[in-house]
Amino acid sequence: MLDELKQQVRELFAGDVGLVIAYGRSRDERTVPVFARKPADADALVWNDRCYYNLTRYLTDRDVMGDGEGKIGIVVKGCDLKTLNVLLAEKQVTRENLAVVALRCKGMKDADGKLLAKCETCTVADPDPALCDCVIGPVPQREPREDDFADVDAIEAMPPAERLAHWSREFERCLRCDACRNICPLCYCRECLASQHDPRWIPASGSATGNRLFHLVRAFHMAGRCTNCGECERVCPVGIPLSTLMRKGARIVRESFGVEPGAAPDQRSPLASFAPNDPDPEEVAIK
């Protein structure tokens, strides 16, 4: 797969692509995002089970997208492709300005060689070729799996008081470092609500009230949009189970509207959509 990826990137540069966002190695041999700008840079690319990063994060970065170098090439995993679909649906990127190379993925692993939690619940069996410029790798020998939301069920099974105590303990550990927000491809607002000074909606320093507000407001903003790429939880320095919080919103949207976030590039979140004939729940109840 790696040789095929390198060749594909070289071919992109032979066309009208001026930058390719992919994976490479740092000086200490970690797998990190890299920005290839010429064919020779393809020789340094890597593909392994440490390619955690959701590279679509850089597609809303002004420094990346505003350099005027031509089309942008980007390497995506199947789960990352879902995030790209959300960005396209929300008109944050333009498909005509992208060259999308999808890699078939067997799952990412942590430092101990254990499959990441997000990969255990991943429902993407194979990237949709219609949504990419090319797909690299052997066709996976497994059927698409259904997400059972077991982690969400475990929290919902708690009595309300115990559930509140659980999340209060988790939020109290938050350092308000903003790592979860900064790594998220869908937290692309130029000025975040949590960073506003006038008016000040959420305290900037860590506090029980401020932390709870920050995470719950962010969860509401992600509902119907989050594709469970799991990056927020992976980078959290204190290990708050943020994916479970996001997946709770995802299940509500699925059960209420039958929508799977990121399923198609023209599918807007139902919570960000409006139709004049939408029924008012109170009116429906009265009738």
List the helices and strands and how they pair.
Layout: H1 2-14, E1 17-25, E2 31-36, H2 62-65, E3 71-76, H3 78-89, E4 98-103, H4 117-120, E5 134-136, H5 150-156, H6 160-172, H7 179-183, H8 208-222, H9 231-235, H10 242-257, H11 281-286
Helix pairs in contact: 6-8, 8-10
Describe this structure in words.
- With 287 residues, the chain is an alpha/beta fold.
- It has two domains: 135 residues, no CATH class; 123 residues, no CATH class.
- Helices cover 35% and strands 10% of the residues.
- It has eleven helices and five strands.
- A five-stranded mixed β-sheet has the order 2-1-3-4-5.
- Helix 8 packs parallel to helix 10.
- The longest helix is centred in the C-terminal third of the chain and has 16 residues.
- The radius of gyration is 20 Å and the shape is globular.
- The protein starts with a helix and ends with a helix.
- The mean pLDDT is 86.
Count of DSSP helices? 11
**Which runs of at least 5 residues are low in confidence (pLDDT < 50)?**
none
User: How many structural domains are formed by the residues?
Assistant: 2
DSSP strand (E) fraction? 5-15%
* Main β sheet profile: 5 strands, mixed
Order of helices and strands: HEEHEHEHEHHHHHHH
Radius of gyration: 20 Å
Tell me, briefly, the overall form. globular
Overall average pLDDT: 86
Strand adjacency order, main sheet: 2-1-3-4-5
